[in-house]
């Protein structure tokens, strides 16, 4: 509902007819409907407001060229992995229940979660206002803003022998209002022998190193010096 500001005292002081200022916002801010405000202001305030609007050149912009409103605060962030592979390839996360352990930073207040939080493909939470779904929706503990993150399943890639010792994107996340700042690989990876195709399931990379023995190829296998970085897409 429109609120009227009390201007009686000002009117008396300036002995002038107050100007009516009307404001409407249709950007669907916080999923609200059209936001409308009204206020009565002095002529000098009205002139200053007009000057600010003219200076911003906003009236020269074309609505048709404006970015779609639902893209505000949304960004894709890629998780890149780097490792040294010894006689194995096709290193990949397995299954819908694979846990991506992340630390998240709120884009509004900068708060970083202390604990590791995991997100999984199998989880889907509806976003307010019919804006689709996300793997996780959470309220920031500090500023209470509701943020979300979605695992983009089609972007999940394996890390192969030809990627050895180079950063490669293994997954992309769609983030609204937050961004991942740290990643902790844990259990749930699989890989296979380069020549033998022997499957190694349930590889745990928490220690950043993993070793085993390929009976078929009669050679040792391993994954070493696992590191990561985040890249904005
Ligand atoms: Zn926050």
Automatic annotation (TrEMBL):
The keyword Zinc applies. One of its GO terms (molecular function) is zinc ion binding. Gene3D superfamilies: Mago nashi. Keywords: Metal-binding, Zinc. GO terms for biological process: mRNA transport; RNA splicing. SUPFAM superfamilies: Mago nashi protein (SSF89817), MAL13P1.257-like (SSF141678). Pfam families: CXXC_Zn-b_euk. InterPro entries: CXXC_Zn-binding_euk, Mago_nashi_sf. GO terms for cellular component: exon-exon junction complex; spliceosomal complex. Belongs to the UPF0587 family. This is CXXC motif containing zinc binding protein. It comes from Myotis brandtii. The lineage of its organism: Eukaryota, Metazoa, Chordata, Craniata, Vertebrata.
């Amino acid at each position: 509902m429109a609120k009227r500001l009390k201007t009686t005292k000002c009117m008396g002081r300036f002995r002038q007819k107050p100007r009516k200022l009307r404001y409407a916002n249709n950007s669907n801010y916080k999923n609200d409907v059209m936001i409308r405000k009204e206020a009565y202001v002095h002529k000098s305030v009205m002139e200053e407001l007009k000057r600010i609007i003219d200076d911003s050149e906003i009236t020269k912009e074309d609505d048709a060229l404006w970015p779609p409103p639902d893209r505000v605060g949304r960004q894709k962030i890629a998780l890149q992995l780097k490792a040294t592979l010894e006689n194995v390839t096709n290193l990949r996360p397995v299954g819908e229940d694979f846990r991506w352990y992340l630390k998240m930073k709120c884009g509004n207040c900068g708060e970083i979660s202390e604990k590791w939080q995991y997100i999984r493909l199998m989880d889907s939470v509806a976003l307010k206002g019919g804006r689709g779904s996300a793997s996780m929706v959470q309220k920031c503990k500090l500023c209470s803003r509701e943020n979300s993150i979605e695992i983009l399943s089609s972007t999940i890639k394996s890390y192969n022998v030809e990627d050895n010792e180079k950063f490669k994107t293994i997954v992309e996340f769609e983030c609204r209002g937050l961004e991942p700042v740290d990643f902790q690989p844990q259990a749930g990876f699989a890989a296979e022998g380069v020549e033998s195709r022997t499957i190694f399931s349930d590889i745990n990379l928490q220690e950043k190193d993993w070793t085993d023995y390929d009976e078929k190829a009669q050679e040792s296998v391993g994954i070493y010096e696992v590191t990561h970085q985040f890249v904005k897409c």
